[in-house]
Specification:
Helix content: under 10%
Oligomer: single chain
Strand order of the largest sheet: 5-6-4-3-2-7-1-10-11-12-13
Radius of gyration: 19 Å
Number of strands: 13
Shape: globular
Order of helices and strands: EEEEHEEHHHHEEEEEEE
Distance between the termini: 40 Å
Strand content: 15-25%
Structural class: mainly beta
Length: 288
């Protein structure tokens, strides 16, 4: 059966309060829901638990893995472990691979070989109790990541640049469960909803009808001729589907993707942003 494509894109807003699962679309920072501690993905680079970035409750038109899979949790290398390129310790990698895995775990690596992961969650898992981070491997020799002591929100706020601190109305509590609610807002105008993002000049597949958020007056590329399309001017930086605004080139992904900034979970993207294709489990980021 052919999969229906979404007809809308959604802006994701990080609110100034903790999440209420009865009314919100998930949360940023904090802890993932409904999984056993043993199923929490470990970092195959360091042997520590990967940091939970966000859990998003998917609207019906983005439940690409079936109506029973209602949410996705994203995990990342801790920002204080992400600096200059990942070392490779075969013993740690093999020990992580031998552990119990969540049945819907997908692992991804970036261009620097750092670790990321996504979990597809059922309704029962999404509504379940918050998970407890597992102990690191006995083989782990890196310094303990800060988020394990004060929580991801507080750890990011401590180290964030001034512009990122402005995303918080007040400093977050130093608590592993401290989170911020996600609100989902349909975009009033996004011609790229349901279309796979692609760069018209670099794409190696058939055109999808995707449009860039900008254009050049007279078709002549230059700084003076750069313009935003009117329909793209009010789009939020964090969003589900629709028009992508990567810091560098457009990664080819399905229409079922999330684009997010560093503060939307607390990462080190070199001042840039990232994209997660949760249909094909592809991940990409670029520095600003």
């Amino acid at each position: 059966m052919a999969l229906a494509l979404p007809s809308r894109a959604y802006d994701l807003q990080m609110l100034d309060r903790p999440a209420d699962r009865a009314r919100d679309q998930g949360w940023v920072y904090g802890l993932p829901p409904g999984i056993e501690s043993e199923q929490w993905p470990l970092d195959a680079v360091t042997g520590y638990p990967l940091m939970h970035g966000f859990t998003l409750l998917l609207p019906d038109d983005y439940r690409v893995h079936g109506e029973d899979i209602v949410a996705v949790s994203f995990f990342a290398t801790a920002p204080d472990h992400n600096d200059g390129g990942a070392p490779d310790d075969p013993e740690i990698r093999e020990a992580v691979a031998a552990r119990t895995q969540h049945p819907r775990l997908s692992r991804m690596t970036d261009i620097l070989d750092y670790e990321y992961a996504a979990l597809l969650l059922t309704r029962a898992e999404y509504e379940g109790a918050f998970a407890t981070p597992p102990a690191p491997l006995a083989l782990a020799t890196s310094d303990r990541p800060r988020w394990l002591d004060v929580g991801g929100a507080s750890a990011f706020h401590e180290a964030a640049a001034p512009y990122a601190k402005k995303m918080f109305a007040a400093p977050p509590r130093a608590d592993l469960a401290e989170n911020r609610a996600i609100a989902l807002i349909p975009r009033a105008d996004d011609p790229n909803a349901g279309k796979a993002p692609q760069d018209e000049h670099r794409s190696r597949v058939a055109p999808t009808g995707y449009q860039s958020f900008y254009y050049y007056v007279g078709g002549m590329p230059s700084r003076d001729n750069f313009r935003l399309h009117d329909w793209s001017k009010n789009h939020a930086q964090n969003h589900l589907g629709g028009t992508m605004r990567p810091c560098q080139s457009v990664p080819e992904m399905s229409p079922f993707y999330i684009e997010f900034e560093e503060y939307f979970g607390g990462y080190n993207f070199g001042g840039g942003n990232a994209q997660l294709d949760f249909k094909n489990m592809k991940f990409d980021w670029a520095c600003g």
